[in-house]
Specification:
Shape: globular
Number of helices: 9
Strand content: under 5%
Low-confidence stretches: 1-10, 12-17
CATH architecture of the largest domain: Orthogonal Bundle
Number of domains: 2
CATH superfamily of the largest domain: Winged helix-like DNA-binding domain superfamily/Winged helix DNA-binding domain
Number of strands: 0
Largest sheet: none
Length: 223
């Protein structure tokens, strides 16, 4: 079957036979039939998300936008070769990740994805050891979200800005994983598929990223 140039083959995921999977297959068929409304809707829903992921690889907004546009063209060219072993969205994100890496090489900003598993702070503890007693219990527990639950806080523009800055300051691997998991809401299987990570390393990177972001939020709240 036709493969996308420069894109890696789909890695199989466990795809349920539920309504979501059937809706995915129907959308693929519409796209293959040249349904312009279906493609326009897909772009409207995911363009911004793809742009956020591209920015985890590329420092230039213009380069990120070019990569996303190139990804959509690759999606159109490769639809006949889509095998459905992963969800359509996972497949699209994987194309984006591969193309963003290629562009990063050209821009001299490439971090090999084989290094992703080593990226994440080395032996850096996820939580400052000084916050624990000698017995291993909390000496300084995390503060309560007394000003509202996290979802409410995230709606505040100043908090969103601080979180965006904190995410931008993460190491590349942590930034990519937390963007996909916590910003875009993808599953761990999907993230492992997109970034070619093992489940263990994906979990470590996510834990470290969340710990760093938690510390930033605590500082913002004066805790």
């Amino acid at each position: 079957m036709t493969r996308l140039t420069g894109a890696q083959p789909e890695r199989p995921l466990e795809v349920s036979g539920g309504a979501s999977h059937h809706a995915d297959l129907r959308l693929v068929e519409r796209l293959r039939d040249g349904d312009e409304a279906a493609f326009t809707g897909l772009v409207a829903k995911h363009h911004g998300r793809l742009l956020r992921l591209a920015r985890t690889f590329l420092s230039s907004p213009a380069s990120a936008e070019e990569v996303v546009q190139d990804t959509w063209m690759a999606v159109l060219r490769g639809l006949q070769g889509f095998e459905g072993r992963s969800s359509l969205v996972t497949w699209i994100y994987r194309i984006l990740a591969n193309r963003a890496r290629t562009r990063a090489v050209r821009d001299g900003r490439f971090v090999p994805f084989s290094d992703l598993e080593r990226d994440g702070g080395g032996d850096e503890p996820a939580v400052d050891p000084s916050r624990f007693t000698d017995g291993g219990s909390w000496a300084e527990p995390p503060g309560r979200w007394e000003r509202g639950d996290p979802e409410t806080l995230l709606l505040r523009s100043e908090m969103r800005h601080d979180i965006q800055e904190a995410i931008a300051g993460l190491p590349p691997a942590q930034r990519a994983v937390v963007t996909l998991r916590d910003v875009e809401g993808l599953s761990s299987d999907e993230v492992c598929n997109i970034l070619d990570l093992s489940e263990t390393n994906q979990r470590v990177l996510l834990h470290r990223a969340r710990s760093r972001l938690r510390r930033e939020l605590e500082r913002h709240l004066g805790r």
